[in-house]
Specification:
With 271 residues, the chain is an alpha+beta fold. The protein contains 6 helices and 17 strands. The strands form 2 sheets. Strands 1, 2, 3, 4, 5, 6, 8, 9, 14 and 17 form a 10-stranded mixed sheet that branches. Strands 12-13-11-10-7-15-16 form a 7-stranded antiparallel sheet.
Protein backbone atom coordinates (compact mmCIF):
# COMPACT_ATOMS: atom_id res chain seq x y z
CA UNK A 1 0.00 0.00 0.00
CA UNK A 2 1.09 3.56 -0.73
CA UNK A 3 0.92 6.82 1.19
CA UNK A 4 0.85 9.98 -0.93
CA UNK A 5 2.13 13.19 0.68
CA UNK A 6 0.92 16.15 -1.39
CA UNK A 7 2.54 19.50 -0.79
CA UNK A 8 -0.04 22.20 -0.09
CA UNK A 9 0.94 24.31 -3.10
CA UNK A 10 -0.01 21.50 -5.53
CA UNK A 11 -3.67 22.49 -4.92
CA UNK A 12 -3.08 25.79 -6.78
CA UNK A 13 -4.90 26.06 -10.10
CA UNK A 14 -1.53 26.52 -11.82
CA UNK A 15 -0.83 22.80 -11.27
CA UNK A 16 -4.38 21.52 -11.87
CA UNK A 17 -3.59 19.95 -15.25
CA UNK A 18 -0.57 18.06 -13.88
CA UNK A 19 -2.49 16.83 -10.84
CA UNK A 20 -5.45 15.72 -12.99
CA UNK A 21 -3.11 13.84 -15.32
CA UNK A 22 -1.47 12.16 -12.33
CA UNK A 23 -4.81 11.16 -10.80
CA UNK A 24 -5.96 9.66 -14.10
CA UNK A 25 -2.82 7.55 -14.53
CA UNK A 26 -2.91 6.31 -10.94
CA UNK A 27 -6.56 5.32 -11.37
CA UNK A 28 -5.88 3.54 -14.67
CA UNK A 29 -3.13 1.48 -13.04
CA UNK A 30 -5.16 0.78 -9.91
CA UNK A 31 -2.56 2.35 -7.63
CA UNK A 32 -4.49 3.37 -4.56
CA UNK A 33 -3.31 4.63 -1.22
CA UNK A 34 -3.72 7.04 1.62
CA UNK A 35 -3.50 10.76 0.78
CA UNK A 36 -2.19 13.43 3.11
CA UNK A 37 -2.02 17.15 2.42
CA UNK A 38 1.07 18.90 3.83
CA UNK A 39 -0.10 22.22 5.21
CA UNK A 40 2.01 24.66 7.21
CA UNK A 41 0.94 23.20 10.53
CA UNK A 42 0.99 19.58 9.42
CA UNK A 43 3.11 17.27 11.62
CA UNK A 44 4.85 15.27 8.90
CA UNK A 45 6.91 13.21 11.36
CA UNK A 46 3.75 12.05 13.16
CA UNK A 47 1.96 11.25 9.88
CA UNK A 48 4.92 9.21 8.63
CA UNK A 49 5.07 7.24 11.88
CA UNK A 50 1.33 6.61 11.74
CA UNK A 51 1.51 5.37 8.14
CA UNK A 52 4.41 3.05 8.95
CA UNK A 53 2.53 1.66 11.96
CA UNK A 54 -0.48 0.91 9.75
CA UNK A 55 1.64 -1.24 7.44
CA UNK A 56 2.37 1.23 4.63
CA UNK A 57 5.78 0.61 3.08
CA UNK A 58 5.93 3.01 0.11
CA UNK A 59 5.96 6.74 0.88
CA UNK A 60 5.37 8.95 -2.16
CA UNK A 61 6.27 12.65 -2.25
CA UNK A 62 3.93 14.50 -4.62
CA UNK A 63 5.59 17.81 -5.43
CA UNK A 64 9.18 18.95 -5.98
CA UNK A 65 12.62 18.58 -4.36
CA UNK A 66 11.43 20.46 -1.30
CA UNK A 67 8.57 18.01 -0.83
CA UNK A 68 10.82 14.99 -1.26
CA UNK A 69 13.41 16.46 1.11
CA UNK A 70 10.84 16.92 3.88
CA UNK A 71 9.49 13.40 3.46
CA UNK A 72 12.99 11.91 3.23
CA UNK A 73 13.99 13.47 6.55
CA UNK A 74 10.82 12.28 8.28
CA UNK A 75 11.16 8.82 6.80
CA UNK A 76 14.72 8.35 7.99
CA UNK A 77 13.67 9.05 11.56
CA UNK A 78 11.60 5.87 11.33
CA UNK A 79 13.42 3.55 8.97
CA UNK A 80 17.04 3.54 10.06
CA UNK A 81 17.69 0.02 8.76
CA UNK A 82 16.43 -0.01 5.15
CA UNK A 83 18.10 -3.33 4.42
CA UNK A 84 16.36 -5.21 7.22
CA UNK A 85 13.73 -7.57 5.82
CA UNK A 86 10.16 -6.67 6.69
CA UNK A 87 10.95 -3.20 8.03
CA UNK A 88 12.00 -1.35 4.90
CA UNK A 89 10.22 1.87 4.06
CA UNK A 90 10.77 3.13 0.51
CA UNK A 91 10.69 6.68 -0.86
CA UNK A 92 9.21 7.49 -4.28
CA UNK A 93 8.53 10.80 -6.03
CA UNK A 94 5.68 11.96 -8.29
CA UNK A 95 6.89 15.24 -9.85
CA UNK A 96 4.66 18.31 -9.87
CA UNK A 97 6.10 21.69 -10.80
CA UNK A 98 9.77 22.64 -11.18
CA UNK A 99 12.95 21.76 -9.23
CA UNK A 100 13.00 18.00 -9.84
CA UNK A 101 16.60 16.83 -9.29
CA UNK A 102 15.49 13.99 -6.99
CA UNK A 103 12.76 12.75 -9.33
CA UNK A 104 15.15 12.83 -12.29
CA UNK A 105 17.77 10.92 -10.32
CA UNK A 106 15.22 8.19 -9.57
CA UNK A 107 14.09 7.90 -13.19
CA UNK A 108 10.79 9.67 -12.49
CA UNK A 109 11.38 12.94 -14.32
CA UNK A 110 7.89 13.01 -15.87
CA UNK A 111 4.50 12.00 -14.51
CA UNK A 112 4.13 8.96 -16.86
CA UNK A 113 7.65 7.80 -15.97
CA UNK A 114 6.96 8.24 -12.27
CA UNK A 115 3.72 6.25 -12.41
CA UNK A 116 5.47 3.42 -14.28
CA UNK A 117 8.15 3.51 -11.59
CA UNK A 118 5.49 2.99 -8.93
CA UNK A 119 3.94 0.15 -10.91
CA UNK A 120 7.28 -1.66 -11.16
CA UNK A 121 8.36 -0.83 -7.59
CA UNK A 122 11.98 -1.73 -8.15
CA UNK A 123 13.97 -0.58 -5.12
CA UNK A 124 17.61 0.28 -4.41
CA UNK A 125 19.40 1.15 -1.18
CA UNK A 126 21.48 4.32 -1.55
CA UNK A 127 23.77 6.51 0.52
CA UNK A 128 22.54 9.80 1.92
CA UNK A 129 24.44 12.83 3.12
CA UNK A 130 23.93 14.27 6.58
CA UNK A 131 24.45 17.89 7.68
CA UNK A 132 25.18 18.76 11.31
CA UNK A 133 23.96 15.33 12.38
CA UNK A 134 20.31 16.12 11.65
CA UNK A 135 19.56 17.23 8.06
CA UNK A 136 19.67 14.55 5.35
CA UNK A 137 20.08 15.12 1.62
CA UNK A 138 20.06 12.78 -1.37
CA UNK A 139 21.47 14.66 -4.37
CA UNK A 140 23.95 17.42 -3.52
CA UNK A 141 24.58 20.23 -1.06
CA UNK A 142 25.68 23.58 -2.52
CA UNK A 143 27.45 26.01 -0.21
CA UNK A 144 27.91 29.79 -0.56
CA UNK A 145 31.23 31.33 -1.72
CA UNK A 146 34.19 31.97 0.59
CA UNK A 147 33.93 28.82 2.67
CA UNK A 148 36.76 26.42 3.55
CA UNK A 149 36.85 22.63 3.49
CA UNK A 150 38.30 20.97 6.55
CA UNK A 151 39.65 17.44 6.07
CA UNK A 152 41.36 15.22 8.61
CA UNK A 153 44.87 16.54 7.99
CA UNK A 154 44.49 19.62 5.77
CA UNK A 155 42.21 22.52 4.82
CA UNK A 156 41.20 23.84 1.40
CA UNK A 157 40.47 27.58 1.39
CA UNK A 158 38.22 29.25 -1.18
CA UNK A 159 39.06 32.91 -1.08
CA UNK A 160 36.90 34.62 -3.68
CA UNK A 161 33.32 34.80 -4.92
CA UNK A 162 34.16 32.91 -8.12
CA UNK A 163 34.60 29.59 -6.26
CA UNK A 164 31.78 27.41 -4.99
CA UNK A 165 31.58 24.05 -3.22
CA UNK A 166 29.10 21.29 -4.04
CA UNK A 167 29.11 18.10 -2.01
CA UNK A 168 27.65 15.50 -4.34
CA UNK A 169 26.07 12.13 -3.71
CA UNK A 170 25.02 11.74 -7.37
CA UNK A 171 26.48 12.67 -10.75
CA UNK A 172 24.92 16.13 -10.66
CA UNK A 173 27.33 17.53 -13.27
CA UNK A 174 27.11 14.63 -15.76
CA UNK A 175 30.83 13.91 -15.65
CA UNK A 176 30.81 10.12 -16.16
CA UNK A 177 32.06 10.51 -19.72
CA UNK A 178 35.25 12.13 -18.36
CA UNK A 179 37.89 9.52 -17.48
CA UNK A 180 38.97 11.53 -14.45
CA UNK A 181 35.59 10.96 -12.84
CA UNK A 182 34.50 7.55 -14.15
CA UNK A 183 34.67 5.99 -10.67
CA UNK A 184 33.12 8.98 -8.92
CA UNK A 185 29.54 9.95 -8.13
CA UNK A 186 28.23 6.54 -7.14
CA UNK A 187 25.48 6.90 -4.49
CA UNK A 188 26.07 3.32 -3.37
CA UNK A 189 29.83 3.38 -2.67
CA UNK A 190 29.81 4.87 0.84
CA UNK A 191 31.56 8.11 -0.18
CA UNK A 192 30.59 11.50 -1.56
CA UNK A 193 32.50 13.97 -3.73
CA UNK A 194 33.32 17.52 -2.69
CA UNK A 195 33.41 19.40 -6.01
CA UNK A 196 35.13 22.78 -6.17
CA UNK A 197 33.93 24.86 -9.11
CA UNK A 198 34.94 28.26 -10.44
CA UNK A 199 33.02 30.66 -12.65
CA UNK A 200 34.97 30.91 -15.94
CA UNK A 201 36.56 34.25 -16.67
CA UNK A 202 36.59 33.79 -20.44
CA UNK A 203 34.04 35.85 -22.36
CA UNK A 204 32.72 35.94 -25.90
CA UNK A 205 34.18 33.50 -28.41
CA UNK A 206 36.77 32.21 -25.91
CA UNK A 207 34.03 30.70 -23.79
CA UNK A 208 32.64 28.84 -26.82
CA UNK A 209 35.93 27.02 -27.35
CA UNK A 210 36.66 26.25 -23.70
CA UNK A 211 37.57 22.59 -23.15
CA UNK A 212 36.68 22.69 -19.46
CA UNK A 213 33.60 20.90 -18.20
CA UNK A 214 30.78 23.22 -17.26
CA UNK A 215 28.59 22.87 -14.15
CA UNK A 216 25.72 25.31 -14.20
CA UNK A 217 27.96 28.13 -15.48
CA UNK A 218 30.96 26.93 -13.43
CA UNK A 219 34.06 24.94 -14.35
CA UNK A 220 35.10 21.89 -12.35
CA UNK A 221 38.47 22.55 -10.69
CA UNK A 222 38.83 19.77 -8.10
CA UNK A 223 37.01 16.70 -6.86
CA UNK A 224 37.68 15.30 -3.36
CA UNK A 225 36.13 11.87 -2.63
CA UNK A 226 35.54 11.63 1.12
CA UNK A 227 33.29 10.30 3.87
CA UNK A 228 33.39 13.28 6.23
CA UNK A 229 34.10 16.98 5.66
CA UNK A 230 33.79 20.09 7.80
CA UNK A 231 32.70 23.22 5.93
CA UNK A 232 34.03 26.34 7.66
CA UNK A 233 32.74 29.88 7.27
CA UNK A 234 33.26 33.28 8.85
CA UNK A 235 29.49 33.65 9.02
CA UNK A 236 27.64 32.11 11.97
CA UNK A 237 24.70 31.03 9.79
CA UNK A 238 24.92 30.10 6.12
CA UNK A 239 22.40 29.16 3.44
CA UNK A 240 22.90 25.67 2.03
CA UNK A 241 20.86 24.20 -0.80
CA UNK A 242 20.76 20.48 0.03
CA UNK A 243 17.84 19.12 -2.03
CA UNK A 244 16.02 22.13 -0.53
CA UNK A 245 17.24 25.39 1.00
CA UNK A 246 18.34 25.21 4.64
CA UNK A 247 19.77 27.70 7.14
CA UNK A 248 22.60 26.00 9.01
CA UNK A 249 24.95 26.99 11.82
CA UNK A 250 28.64 27.01 10.82
CA UNK A 251 30.82 25.05 10.91
CA UNK A 252 28.77 22.46 9.04
CA UNK A 253 29.71 18.83 9.54
CA UNK A 254 28.98 16.76 6.43
CA UNK A 255 29.12 12.98 6.50
CA UNK A 256 27.84 10.04 4.51
CA UNK A 257 25.38 7.41 5.75
CA UNK A 258 25.98 4.30 3.58
CA UNK A 259 22.90 2.53 2.16
CA UNK A 260 20.67 4.48 4.53
CA UNK A 261 17.71 5.10 2.23
CA UNK A 262 15.54 2.75 0.20
CA UNK A 263 14.19 4.39 -2.97
CA UNK A 264 11.85 3.30 -5.76
CA UNK A 265 13.66 3.69 -9.08
CA UNK A 266 12.66 3.59 -12.72
CA UNK A 267 14.43 2.37 -15.84
CA UNK A 268 16.02 5.77 -16.50
CA UNK A 269 17.48 6.28 -13.04
CA UNK A 270 20.84 8.02 -12.54
CA UNK A 271 22.16 5.81 -9.73
Amino acid sequence: MFAYFLDDWTAHKRYAREVDSLDLLLTQHGIIGRRLRLGRLHDLDASARDCAASGIRTFVAVGNDGTASKLLNSLLKIDWRPGEKGRSLALAVLPIGEEQKIASCLGSATIPEAVQTLVGRRTESIDVGKLNNRHYFMTLATFPPKVSLGFLSYTVNLLDDEHQVHICNINAFNLKSDRRYQKSFNPQDGTFEAVVTRRPLAVGWKKLFSKERQAGGYQIESVFPHQKITVLSREKTITVVADAEKQLTAPVEVEIEPRKLLVVVGAGNNL
